[in-house]
Structures are given as C-alpha cells and as structure tokens.
Amino acid sequence: MLGAMARPRTQAPSPTFLIPALLRYLRQRGADPTLLCNRFGLEPAVEQADQAALTALDLDALMAAAAQLLGEPFLALRLPGELPLKRYGLAELAAHASSTLREALARLARYGALIHAELALVFEEDAQEGRFRQPTPGHPRGIGRCLHELTLALALTQCRRQSGRPLAALRVWFMHARPPQLAALERFFGTQALDFGSADNGLALPAAVLGAPTQSGDPRLLATVEELAEAALRAQPAPQDVAARVAARMGSLLPDRVNMEEVARALGMSPRTLQRRLEDSGTRFSDLLDDLRERLARTWVADRALPLAEVAYRLGFSDLATFSRAFKRWTGKPPGTWRRS
Q: Which residues contact 131 (CB under 8 A, 6 or more apart)?
C-alpha cells in the first residue's frame, strides 16, 4: 500500500514543470498515475500540461509516493536525467547556455525559484572548492529527502552533461536523516563522503573543474534567456498563504459561482484538498466568504448611487432581505440606516 500523503501546509502551491513530467514518467514506466492525481488533488489533465501547482512539501510527498509505486527508493537521483520534459525552463536554459560550469551553477542557483517558488539555491566558492547549497527557509527541518536529493542530482547532472565528464562530488551533505542504505547515493555522487542531519543540503566540486568550458555555451542564447529569466523573477508574485489566494479568487467568481467546487477548480486542486488546506491554516471557506462580502458590502452600500438590491445581487445573496440580515449582523444596522448615517 502506498504511504499516506503528508498533511497540506499553509504555503501556497506553486507551479512547476516537475509535476506533469513526473506523471508522464510514471506512465512511461508502466505505472498508472491516476491514484496519485486523486490523492494530491490534481486534475487528470495535469499530466499533459506544462506545469501544475503543489507546495514544496507536497511535491516531495508526491515524489516519495512515485518512488514507492515504482519500487525505487532513490528515484529522485534518476529523474533529472530521465524526466520527459516538454520544454526546458528558463533556469535550465540559462545554465545550459553558460560558458563554464561555474557560471552554469551560479545561474541555476539564481533562477532556482523559477523551478519552484520555494526552491532557494546558493552557489559559492573558495580556492579549494565550489559549493552548491540548498537552504530551506521556512522549513527548519528541511523539505523532504526526495526533494533534497532531486535538487542536488539536478545540479550534478547539469554539470556532467555540459562538461561531458563523469564528474564526482568531493562531498555531499543533507538535512534529512541517514537512510538505511547508502550505496545508491555513493554511486550517483561518486563519493563516500556523505553527511546527514546538516544545516542545509549541498555538494562540493573541486575548484579546478569550475572554470572548464562547457559543450553547450551559447552567448547569444544566454543573452536572450537571461533577460527573460530576470523578467520572470521580477514578475513572480510574493508568496501568499492559501486563505489569501482563496479570498482573491472568490472576488472574481461573485456573484453566482462562489462555492468550494468552483474555487478549487480555479486554483487547480480538488475541493477536498482545498478544504484540508483551509483547515490547516485555521480558517473555513464560509468565514472567508463572509469576510469578503462584509468588506465589499461596506464599500458598495456607501455608494448612494448603487441600489441596495444591486449590492445584494453583486454579493451573491438570493434577495435583499437575506442581505439586510447579514449586513445588520456585520454592522449592527440595516443597510439603509447605515447608508443614511
């Protein structure tokens, strides 16, 4: 039996190409991803999409479930080299077009948030080594083993492709606990210097290889991609919790389509998943709707040119009497009295 899905957190789901690609990968391997779609609140059509949204914690749980489905505990190490991508993202393209491994790792770190909004990456170096690190702000215990391993595997796979060499890490460290078996990690990273329970995740490469030219360096492509990547970073919305995203979506669905099913569909998740995420954030759908209606009602009732019946309609109330009762509950006065005062 597949492991249970992690309880949703209050971080807002962020879009990433990893989710549809992973579902396509499962189907290619002969596994039906429908069960995972149902468990994680993903629509079946997500498999053919360019992106889908989950929090980082749920993305890690999805990868863990996929690994269990295929019977491969270290599936995350293989994914960067085997995922069936429809197109490369801006972070990968910027790294691909870089002229040295140093530049490729630096750009992969800079644009990591374009892979997933919760992905924080750092590249630093000294005279002996370059370090590609994954801190996890907001997650003091880390995100999860699968996403930790995938992130470092992505960086090393990128370097191996661009250098044309089977590069080995000097050392690798992880935030999560030591797994029972280390052989797969030692083979992939090419080192037995593995540490666990660290302050962040990372790998170190010899300084001598960082300046080596890549096989894919393309200054003209890089100039275009960097401009697009910088614009995408600037346009990336500030993180919102799920309650804020639901409230924003409710406003666009008024007056007659504000229900759990419609809002969940607009946010790309199932009603059940949305309900659980709201519960985890300490609120309810009905409370958010009531608060939104109150705020809009105060604004619209103050506009004397707007008939009260029109206000009631805009807010999704069935009639003026029902709206009047709600308004009196909010303000202590009927809407007509409140308007005159």
A: 122, 123, 124, 125, 202, 203, 204
- What's the whole-number mean pLDDT along residues 217-222? 93
In order, the DSSP letters of 226-258 are HHHHHHHHHHSPPP-BHHHHHHHHHHHHTTT--
On whether residue 317 sits in a domain, the answer given is yes
58 contacts 8 by C-beta, under 8 angstroms: yes
CB 173 within 8 A of CB 134: no
Residues in the chain: 341
Q: Strands 14-16, 52-54: parallel, antiparallel or unpaired by DSSP? A: antiparallel
Query: How do strand 201-206 and strand 171-173 relate by DSSP bridges?
Result: antiparallel
Sign of CA pseudo-dihedral 110, 201, 237, 264: positive
Asked if residue 9 belongs to a domain, the reply is no
Q: Report pLDDT for 202.
A: 96
Residue-averaged pLDDT of the chain: 89
Q: What's residue 241's pLDDT?
A: 64
Domain that holds residue 153: 14-235
